[in-house]
């Protein structure tokens, strides 16, 4: 059906910035802004564009076909293209050089593929700029996790031991009860003691 075909084509083009959509960069450093795209039916004269905060165009490139590398259409002087589309991945990543605090914000990687009836797709990555990187000390956290984990382990072990001990005690007591009942019944019956089966017989008539 034409409608289903249109949906399939629309979903064929996908753009991704990786597993996380946040990047942190040190002030005055260079930062990589990753982006790749996939298409099920290939591409021809594909156009990709990078935007800053949705409106400011910072890089635009065009790819004639899978056999050729992208060519730059327009670019911000501080943006360098570092991707490649002739290899396994259709990589259209860029590097932002000499990062400033004013560069913090939203970066959108937009792709348009004329071969898919001008199908379009985009992905967004958020950049945070800091004065210095702060190393996270996980020592305390690891100690706490280790102690808590150890206590939980000991508690589980204690509960298992308790259950086993109680089970053994119960079995031992049940065994003793069976022995007492068995020996008591035999003695009473054989010796004619009070409460025995022999005692319960009616006395013979004279």
Automatic annotation (TrEMBL):
Occurrences of domain Ig-like (ranges): 2-126
Stretches with biased composition (Polar residues): 181-191
The keyword Transmembrane helix is assigned to this record: yes
Gene Ontology biological process: cardiac muscle cell action potential involved in contraction; regulation of ventricular cardiac muscle cell membrane repolarization
GO function term, MF aspect, one: sodium channel regulator activity
Subcellular location: Membrane
InterPro entries found in the cross-reference section: Ig-like_dom (IPR007110), Ig-like_dom_sf (IPR036179), Ig-like_fold (IPR013783), Ig_sub (IPR003599), Ig_V-set (IPR013106), Myelin_P0-rel (IPR000920)
GO CC, one annotated term: voltage-gated sodium channel complex
Bilayer topology term: Single-pass type I membrane protein
Keywords: Disulfide bond, Glycoprotein, Immunoglobulin domain, Membrane, Signal, Transmembrane, Transmembrane helix
Ranges where the record places region Disordered: 178-206
TM ranges: 31-52, 140-161
PANTHER family in the cross-refs: MYELIN P0 RELATED, SODIUM CHANNEL SUBUNIT BETA-4
UniProt protein name: SCN4B protein
């Amino acid at each position: 059906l034409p409608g289903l075909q249109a949906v399939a084509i629309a979903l064929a083009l996908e753009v991704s910035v990786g597993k996380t959509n946040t990047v942190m960069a040190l002030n005055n450093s260079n930062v990589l802004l990753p982006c790749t795209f996939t298409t099920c039916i290939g591409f021809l004269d594909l156009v990709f564009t990078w935007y800053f905060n949705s409106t400011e165009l910072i890089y635009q490139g065009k790819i004639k076909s899978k056999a050729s590398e992208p060519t730059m259409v327009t670019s911000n002087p501080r943006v360098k293209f570092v991707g490649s589309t002739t290899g396994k991945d259709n990589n259209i990543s860029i590097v932002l050089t000499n990062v400033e605090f004013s560069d913090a914000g939203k970066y959108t990687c937009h792709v348009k593929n004329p071969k898919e009836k001008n199908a379009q797709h985009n992905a967004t990555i958020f950049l945070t700029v800091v004065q210095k990187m702060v190393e996270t000390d996980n020592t305390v956290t690891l100690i706490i996790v280790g102690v808590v984990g150890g206590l939980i382990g000991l508690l589980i072990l204690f509960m298992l031991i308790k259950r086993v001990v109680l089970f053994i005690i119960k079995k031992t007591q049940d065994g003793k009860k069976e022995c007492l009942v068995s020996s008591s019944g035999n003695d009473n019956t054989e010796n004619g003691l009070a409460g025995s089966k022999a005692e319960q017989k009616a006395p013979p008539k004279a």
